[in-house]
Design brief:
- By secondary structure, the protein is an alpha/beta fold.
- The chain has 7 helices and 9 strands; from the N terminus they run E-E-E-H-H-H-E-E-H-E-H-H-E-E-H-E.
- The chain folds into 2 domains: about 90 residues, no CATH class; about 60 residues.
- The strands form 4 sheets. Strands 1-4-5 form a 3-stranded mixed beta sheet. The chain has a two-stranded antiparallel ribbon with strand order 2-3. Strands 6-9 form a two-stranded parallel ribbon.
- Helix 5 runs antiparallel to helix 6.
- The longest helix is centred in the middle third of the chain and has 22 residues.
Length: about 160
């Protein structure tokens, strides 16, 4: 298999004057799956990238072996940037309210939002849905866990 190389360009690197933590903004050079996987792995972690790839019907280990992000393996790229993104998100979420907005009006999107507000079991019962569901490339459980103990404002698509 021909080795695919996609580049994700860091377009900004700024230093926080209070915490001296670096913040990186990623800009995709194209809309390819490899580019999306690189950005998702850096901003949300390798598990989110795995879900993205598997949602496209591809085997993750095969995909991961054929992709590089800025001349690094997908795993190494994720490790390098995911910790910074995670700490930045944690710092921001301690002081700010998070607004979740469904961009779709389907029942799966509403289930994701209700699960954050009501809990996974209550939301599944409300929507009478027991199958697997993906919320922003994460399992429902991981999506709910991400917003646990956070100040979250839930909004529907039309609001």
């Amino acid at each position: 298999m021909k080795r695919l190389t996609y580049t994700v360009t860091m377009c900004a690197l700024a230093f926080s004057s209070t915490a001296f933590a670096s913040k990186v903004k990623f800009e995709a050079l194209n809309d390819g799956l490899a580019t999306q996987a690189c950005i998702v792995s850096a901003t949300e972690g390798l598990e989110a990238a795995k879900a993205l790839v598997q949602n496209q019907g591809l085997h993750f280990n095969t995909f991961k072996a054929s992709v590089s992000c800025n001349n690094q393996s997908l795993t190494a790229f994720s490790r390098q940037y995911a910790m910074t993104a995670k700490s930045t998100l944690e710092d921001a979420s301690q002081n700010k309210r998070i607004r979740l907005v469904a961009t779709k009006t389907d029942s799966a999107s509403q289930l994701c939002l209700d699960a954050v507000a009501l809990g996974e079991e209550a939301a599944r019962a409300k929507h009478n849905f027991n199958g697997p569901v993906s919320c922003n490339y994460k399992t429902l459980s991981n999506f709910v866990r991400r917003f646990k103990n956070k100040q979250v404002e839930i909004m529907s698509a039309g609001e």
